[in-house]
Amino acid sequence: MAGSEARPEDFIFSDVRASRYAEYNVIKVNHRGTRQARVLGIDRERFYNMATGMDAPKDGTKGIGAAILRGVGLQSSDGTKRPYRNIRDLIGVRMVGPEEPCGLHVVFSEGIDEAGRKEYRYEASSGDEAAEIVAKLRH
Asked: How many Å apart are CA 124 and CA 133, to the nearest integer?
């Protein structure tokens, strides 16, 4: 079955199709290796990072700090710190490689980080879906 997985080059997007909102169920893997179920939403302008129903916090579980962050728009009500990022801030996206056919890395520019960038690692449900996400973001 080697070689049967799709590559980003296998997906052809028109401007209209690439702009259309699409959702993908993925696993976000943070820098400590913690795995969190997420729904990625992608359209022409934004990259949405939403917690699934299982990961969404119950009222009051995040404390007053999260309520303040939500109040000023820095945290969503579902508990994610950055509910979306602008596509114009996308620096790069790539497949992890043959050792992880479902894995992808997404890099955004960010002024807070001293390196000026923020990297995210996700695992899609299949290699084909990972390739589709990469192709859509590259378009």
From this structure: 9
